[in-house]
Amino acid sequence: MKSAEDIVRDAQAWWTTEIIDIEPGKIAMRGYPIEELIGNVSFPQMIWLMVRGDLPTAEQSRLLEAALVAAVDHGPHAPSIAISRMAVTCGVELNNAMASAVNVLAGIHGGAGQQCMELYADAAKRIGEGAPLDEAVEAALDAYIAENGKVIPGFGHRFHPIDPRSGKLLAMVEEARAKGVVEGLYSQIGQQVEAILERRKGKRIPMNIDGATAVIYAELGFAPELGRGLFILSRSVGILAHAWEQSQQGGRIKGPMPKNIPYTYAGPARRAVPGKNQA
Q: What residue stretch is flagged as signal peptide (predicted)?
């Protein structure tokens, strides 16, 4: 039979964390007192600290912040943003609207960054095993297509012929590489993916925001599994802004289209229920 001391030790070990240490009057994040972090650490630096365990350099933080800023919003036609606005008109609070929106950021809408990081990681692994860059990327692309289909995450955009965000982000990666902040391997991999897709398809399919942020997150050493979480942190800003704007504009039970625009009905014509008029 366990002693009272053993039971207390079991209870204390139930949740074990290296992230935060709290006792009455004291809070420390990864060992840093919260009162020293406040006013001295930016929000991107805090994200890095919480997820990675220590503080980034100023240049690392600059790159992370750029990626987070770039992906905050893409308009009310984006499903997650539209959902946040529709939810508000149903009478829910801001937190409910945000949760409803975040819950659709899955594999298809919101998951491309993580998927692209996984593709890059596969190519990087092959390079680490001795394969030349072009062969490694080609093999990684073939493996991805065999498992997931022909749509390559991070390249091409349904709305932008050239994504205005990706060029700036890649230029910042190159600046960081020149300063020795990042190695530049994932930037090379991304550009090689673009070159291979152009050769295979006969037209350029440029890197989009997901491909560019995947380069940054990978260059900074984030695991692919964190890609979607980082995107959600970024897009939550846009979700909050749109939910708040809709709450100020008002409106009740707004659906995805104005009520004067009908949807398409493709079922049978009006017909009688069998036996309805039989005595």
A: none
Q: How far apart are CA 252 and CA 247, in angstroms?
A: 10
| Structure confidence by residue, pLDDT tens digits, 42-55 | 999 999 999 999 99
9 pLDDT tier (thresholds 50, 70, 90): confident
* H or E element in which residue 29 lies: strand 26-29
Q: Could you give the CA distance from residue 192 to residue 261 in angstroms, rounded to a whole number?
A: 45
For 224-249, the pLDDT digits (tens) are 999 999 999 999 999 999 999 999 99
**Long-range contacts, stretch 123-127, CB < 8 angstroms, 24+ apart:** 123/189, 123/192, 123/193, 124/185, 124/186, 124/189, 124/218, 127/185, 127/189
Residue 223 burial class via C-beta count within 10 angstroms: exposed 0-12, middle 13-18, buried 19 and up:
middle
Q: Is the pTM of this model over 0.90?
A: yes
C-beta atoms surrounding 124 within 10 Å: 20
Q: Rounded to 5 degrees, what are φ and ψ at 266?
A: -120, 15
Q: Which domain holds residue 133?
A: 112-229
Residue 217 domain flag? yes
Residue 205 falls inside a structural domain = yes
What is the domain count for the chain?
A: 1
